[in-house]
Amino acid sequence: MPVSEETFTPAALATMPREPQQTDFQLVRVKSTWYRIKKGEDLSDCEDQITLSEAKIGECISEGGISWTIEAPIYFCYKVVETYNILDPSNTTLLWGHITDPQQLELATSSKRKLRRFIVIDEVVDELYGSKVREYFEENNVQHKILALPTTEETKSMDLVLNILQEVQNFSIDRRTEPIIAIGGGVCLDIVGLAASLYRRRTPYIRVPTTLLSYVDASVGAKNGVNFLQCKNKLGGYTPPVASFLDRSFIQSIPRRHISNGLGEILKMALMKHKGLFDLLKSHGKYLLDTKFQSYSGSANHGDAALQTTRIAIETMLEELAPNLWEDDLDRLVDFGHLISPELEMRVLPSLMHGEAVNIDMAFMTYVAHARGLITAEEKEQIIQCMRGLELPVWHGGCSWPLIKKALMERLKHSGGQPRMPLPTGLGVAEIFNDTSEETLERAYKLWVRDCKTALEEEPAAL
Is 97 helix (H, G, I), strand (E, B) or coil? Predict the structure, then answer.
């Protein structure tokens, strides 16, 4: 087959062109070896089996020397799967549900090799479900190690990641066929995701969210991370799990405040892009809180509000995340509620939960949208009343004007010098703005404090 095998001698270097010469190469594998060939070169006379890569190499020769530009698309495939009774030993989702290729699945299920799994579980979840988790793996004859850890915002650190990695090394997993399993809330999923991405540069892992917030948010994206120097998620990366398994039955065991906490992230998606979801929350919010997102027969007035709400929240989130998994585009509607909340959440830790801090941010930004004339007074009021109906705080004493200014300055640093401020332009529609003046922000802040500040909301409800 035609393969480019150019060599460069001193004489060749001496005659480099004054005008830069650009040559584009594609990459092909013949048997076990990769070669570059000029783009468009005919491969029809090659008798060997070849593989054509989507990666490309561009070569530019100039008086100054040679430079190469590499385009190498990174491909990820991961599953987000609704399941029920995931800890029932007869449900094999946790064992095989991450495998997408039918041939690989057949090989895995027919193998005589003993199954092995390393599981990290939040210590609170372990108290509630640990016996079931152990029974599940024992019943399925799986050699396993269960590591129960305190996974909170206060412990979300590299120290905990290194703790996990030490135990993973001791267990000696096969990095290709033995995915690490994370069972817990968003903090647990973030920490384990980062540990897996670091171990041997990338070890597959599975997410099993046990809170409403992690069910609709942390479980469906690619990000992982830990806090650093009192900054939220300052260290992290983009490595999606091979699968996320969603079982709503876990949510029935969490406190009511945690349900509200998750509703904050669901409301975010409703305000940004789905009026139908907003209407669901407005009409069924109290019911969802009362029933803890469980589906019951005989609730004709509510349909299956829990199923509808979670599915729409996940679908809208995936629509926004999938085309921009590595955040190459910094204009992101899903950043609504996340401009001020990281600074606020870390400043008052552990006073506010994540979804509560996000909602306070969204409440303020709702006033900013109104001050800009993007939404009507009636729409603003509907949004605030919906938040209150979901038992979410709409104001906090820690969210001062100096904190807001500091948070927005931090936003500029990691958003390419632009605020990239998502704001509602109606109910269920939004745009991103870079031209909100400080005068508008301050005017909105004063109105927000006047309308929303109450003694009750200064301190959130107890856990």
Answer: coil
Asked about 223 being catalytic, the answer comes back as yes
DSSP state of 348: S
Residue 39 in tokens: 């783009």
Lowest mean pLDDT among 41-50, 118-127, 138-147: 41-50
Q: Which of 56, 156, 223, 282 is catalytic?
A: 223
| Cα separation, 68 vs 178, whole angstroms | 37
DSSP for 196-257, written as a single string: HHHGGG---EEEEE-SHHIIIIITTSSEEEEEETTEEEEEEEE---SEEEE-GGGGGGS-HH
Verdict on whether the full-model pTM lies above 0.85: yes
Rounded Cα distance between 127 and 115, Å, is: 25
pLDDT, tens digit, 9 for 90 and up, residues 170-223: 999 998 899 999 999 999 999 999 999 999 999 999 999 999 999 999 999 999
Based on its alpha-carbon atoms, the radius of gyration of the chain, rounded to whole angstroms, reads: 26
Among 197, 101, 192, 104, which residue's Cα sits nearest to residue 155?
192
CA angle 279–323–422, rounded 5-degree value: 50
**Average pLDDT over all residues of the chain:** 92
Residue 11 is inside which H or E element, if any? Answer: helix 10-14
